[in-house]
Design the sequence.
């Protein structure tokens, strides 16, 4: 909406990875709309607070519904949206700080519930919006504005963390390849359960990792990115976990539980055990 | 000597059935036509620990739990020692003689509760022994307890008959044992039957039922005393198609989850107590900012921090009115009786829909855990409201108008962004001064839609008034009846709508020389709110974790009225 909205004054820095993520979400939503023949208004994008969360205002073309809430609470909000109206398509867009630091407590419950939503994490290894402090995915030893002598915490490995929590769909992505990323996001949306795509989306201003990610033959840097090998069995959790823990940044689906049962279906099964009473009946039961 | 009411207190080690004893007394007496109110206080430990419950039975409506005890049922020595001093002169102590014997207590009657139960053939009929003895002490016939017993325990199970027969015998054995002591606390006249249907329930259930009637779709909550029973109720009953009840992983999750549900067009609610309410602060601000209907019940207990989890207090009012940072003024409804709990919940959901924003119900431990007989609500007459939904085309400027505007719902036209940052008509972030002025004023203007709250007054010719709030309405009314009878020149005001206060009520209060506000907190929170509205208000505070005693209120109000204002309280 807001690219042409004069009142909206936020801009991503030139070269910011989030541009590519936005493009890929636009592709994915369009494809989703066409193949499922549902209007784009059936999608709700729940955004975190950060440079990344501004994506919800910057989407071009037909507009989904959006919630740009408070820092770290995308999952609880998305939980409410999805379980109130399970027919809606719910997408979380959040940064590494929002999702893995202040909001980290919500990942476990969402994964164990198998909440049927798709999370697209824009992982730039830094707090962009607050101007360059260290985040959970900042590499050990990195100098940032809040770690002037180097980061003393280890780096969180998001893929390992998501798998450990029991997420039923875990993928790695890269903002520099929007078409491929869009394909992954569509697959994640198609997955009946809790799906996360952790996207390397470099921050050109505070943590420019393009060289490290893509590699630079001239500088003799080998790329961190590599495609998940076609031989990898995505239904094999142990293999996925091993891949997540090996060096480099895999792009593609690491794990997809083939028998995933989303929360809304579990709720339907559970509800069959309940004895439904009208409010009038509940009141009548208290007659003196 | 005829009495109008009597108070029975059951005191024991936790788990000895004191809860069911007072519940059975309350249910049977209310079925017989008496009015009842129970009161319970529990230790925080799960098993054991001193527990006591109380039931007040009266020929007219019970307004408070009662100042003094007519009959103390002491299941052990500690209970006896703790509560003996509260038994009024002429009262009776019924103690378990198998457990202990008090020293030379002329008011005490000992019965071997369990031994008599054993004789009845139902080992678990100890409560029935006690209740049988009670009937004798207040000169009741046994019949209504017998009827109750037959009804309650005929559940179509194989052992029913034996239980009913055992209980019946236990009632008789208790009564006979008490008869031999030849003691009485007075005679309660027969009940005066009421002409309307009644139900017996506690405040938590009343709130849950009110929410159900108002059409709640989604309930998400995290366990916390004294609000947990609302969660438990919803998990059991909010089950139909399109409904969702769930235990959250924290109160931060609860508030944001019901916000997500509210955004989609559903009616959503959570309930908590002080500590959880504090955690909801930022989420409540988001609901206010992005204009999403939702309801939060805060069942107050003693605070701050973990405070007094199982005691009553009215110390969350300021937090409820301004729970979040920034310019926020939360609508607050504080029911004063179990009956009002039902209507407060309906109104809260209606308000949330009407002004599109968060509404707080401020209940309290005292209301939540006590049972009361109330007129049965006629559901067909209790109005339910629904939000205005947008049905136009896309490109909708959701936040354009100065007041409330139709809300687009996902799946329908008019997609927008519900934004916690200041925003333009589409919900996109903006920092323009004019926009912040417009939006701030828009949010406050919507409160005008909520000025329809009802209020009560009496003897308004007096220049000094008393105005309790919340769960102290009952003790306040009882005290007021005595003040009125004694000719103390003081007016009465009450409303459960604390924000926005009904404008006409405020106008009258401002004309008073002095408004006395009995409230259970140290700071005099409601009095200070009233002063900020230009009312010469002064609090009568108590912060013991317990409700007011009526006699204390009568004394303190009388003294204060006699002293007059004389310029002491200014605004
Ligand atoms: C409760 C709260 N604490 C702190 C902030 C300030 N804050 C805004 S964004 C942000 C970090 C954003 O980092 P990330 O999620 O990685 O997003 P990025 O900007 O890197 O895309 C912080 C700390 C806030 N808005 N709310
Ligand atoms: S600060 Fe970094 S993350 Fe934020 S817009 Fe600029 S490049 Fe992107
Ligand atoms: Mg970041």
Sequence:
């Amino acid at each position: 909406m807001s690219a042409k909205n004069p009142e909206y004054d936020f801009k991503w820095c030139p070269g910011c990875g989030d541009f590519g993520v936005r493009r890929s979400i636009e592709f994915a939503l369009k494809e989703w709309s066409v193949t499922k023949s549902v209007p784009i208004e059936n999608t709700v994008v729940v955004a975190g607070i950060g440079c990344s969360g501004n994506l919800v205002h910057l989407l071009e073309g037909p507009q989904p519904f959006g919630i740009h809430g408070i820092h770290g609470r995308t999952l609880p909000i998305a939980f409410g949206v999805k379980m109130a109206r399970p027919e809606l398509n719910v997408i979380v867009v959040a940064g590494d700080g929002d999702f893995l630091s202040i909001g980290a407590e919500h990942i476990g419950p969402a994964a164990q519930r198998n909440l049927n939503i798709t999370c697209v994490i824009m992982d730039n290894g830094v707090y962009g919006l607050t101007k360059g402090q260290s985040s959970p995915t900042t590499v050990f030893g990195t100098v940032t504005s809040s770690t002037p002598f180097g980061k003393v915490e280890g780096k969180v490995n998001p893929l390992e963390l998501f798998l450990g929590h029991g997420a039923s769909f875990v993928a790695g992505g890269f903002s520099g390849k929007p078409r491929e990323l869009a394909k992954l996001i569509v697959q994640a949306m198609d997955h009946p359960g809790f799906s996360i795509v952790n996207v390397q989306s470099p921050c050109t201003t505070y943590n420019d990792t393009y060289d490290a990610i893509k590699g630079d033959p001239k500088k003799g840097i080998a790329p961190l990115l590599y495609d998940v090998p076609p031989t990898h069995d995505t239904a094999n959790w142990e293999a996925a976990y091993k891949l997540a823990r090996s060096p480099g940044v895999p792009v593609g689906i690491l794990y997809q539980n083939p028998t995933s049962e989303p929360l809304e279906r579990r709720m339907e099964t559970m509800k069959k055990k309940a004895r439904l009473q009208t409010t009038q009946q509940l009141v009548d039961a208290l007659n003196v | 000597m005829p009495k109008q009411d009597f108070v029975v207190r059951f005191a024991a080690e936790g788990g000895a059935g004191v809860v069911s004893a007072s519940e059975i007394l309350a249910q049977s007496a209310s079925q017989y036509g008496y009015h009842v109110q129970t009161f319970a206080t529990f230790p925080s430990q799960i098993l054991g620990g001193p527990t006591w419950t109380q039931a007040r039975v009266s020929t007219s409506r019970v307004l408070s739990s009662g100042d003094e005890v007519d009959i103390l049922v002491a299941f052990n020595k500690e209970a006896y020692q703790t509560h003996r001093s509260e038994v009024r002169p002429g009262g009776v102590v019924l103690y378990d003689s198998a457990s202990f014997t008090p020293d030379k207590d002329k008011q005490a009657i000992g019965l071997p509760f369990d031994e008599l139960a054993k004789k009845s053939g139902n080992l678990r009929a100890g409560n029935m022994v006690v209740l049988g003895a009670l009937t004798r002490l207040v000169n009741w016939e046994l019949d209504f307890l017998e009827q109750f017993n037959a009804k309650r325990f005929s559940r179509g199970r194989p052992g029913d008959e034996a239980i009913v027969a055992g209980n019946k015998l236990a009632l008789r054995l208790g009564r006979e044992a008490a008869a031999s002591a030849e003691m009485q606390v007075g005679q309660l006249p027969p009940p005066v039957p009421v002409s309307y249907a009644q139900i017996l329930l506690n405040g938590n259930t009343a709130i849950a039922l009110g929410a159900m009637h108002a059409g709640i779709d989604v309930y998400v909550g995290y366990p916390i005393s004294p609000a947990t029973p609302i969660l438990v109720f919803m998990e059991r009953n909010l089950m139909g198609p399109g409904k969702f009840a769930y235990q959250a992983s924290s109160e931060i999750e609860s508030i944001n989850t019901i916000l997500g549900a509210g955004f989609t067009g559903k009616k959503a609610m959570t309930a908590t107590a002080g500590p959880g309410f504090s955690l909801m602060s930022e989420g409540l601000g988001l609901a206010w900012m992005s204009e999403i209907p939702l309801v939060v019940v805060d069942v107050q207990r003693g605070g701050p921090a973990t405070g007094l989890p199982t005691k009553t207090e009215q110390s969350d009012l300021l937090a409820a009115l301004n729970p979040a940072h920034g310019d926020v003024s939360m609508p607050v409804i504080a029911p004063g009786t179990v009956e009002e709990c039902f209507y407060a919940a309906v109104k809260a959901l209606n308000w949330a829909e009407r002004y599109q924003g968060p509404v707080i119900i401020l209940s309290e431990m005292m209301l939540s855990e006590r049972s009361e007989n109330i007129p049965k609500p006629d559901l067909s007459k209790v109005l339910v409201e629904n939000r205005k939904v947008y049905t136009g085309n896309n490109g909708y400027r959701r936040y354009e108008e100065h007041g409330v505007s139709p809300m687009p719902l996902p799946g329908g036209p008019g997609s927008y962004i519900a934004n916690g940052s200041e925003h333009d008509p589409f919900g996109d972030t903006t920092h323009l001064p004019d926009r912040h002025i417009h939006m701030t004023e828009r949010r406050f203007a919507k409160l005008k839609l909520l000025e329809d709250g009802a209020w009560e007054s009496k003897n308004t010719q007096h220049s000094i008034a008393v105005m309790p709030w919340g769960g102290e309405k009952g003790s306040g009314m009882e005290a007021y009846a005595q003040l009125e009878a004694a000719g103390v020149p003081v007016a009465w005001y009450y409303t459960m709508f604390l924000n926005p206060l009904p404008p006409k009520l405020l106008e009258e209060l401002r004309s008073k020389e002095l408004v006395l506000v009995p409230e259970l907190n140290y700071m005099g929170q409601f009095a200070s709110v009233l002063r900020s509205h230009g009312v010469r208000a002064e609090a009568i505070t108590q912060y013991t974790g317990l409700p007011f005693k009526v006699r204390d209120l009568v004394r303190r109000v009388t003294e204060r009225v006699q002293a007059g204002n004389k310029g002491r309280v200014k605004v």
User: Anything to note?
Assistant: The CA atoms of residues 479 and 554 of chain B lie 5 Å apart. Residues 456-566 of chain B form a domain with the Rossmann fold fold (CATH 3.40.50.920). Chain B has four domains: 5-179, 200-381, 388-450, 456-566. Chain B touches chain A through 71 residues (CB under 8 Å).
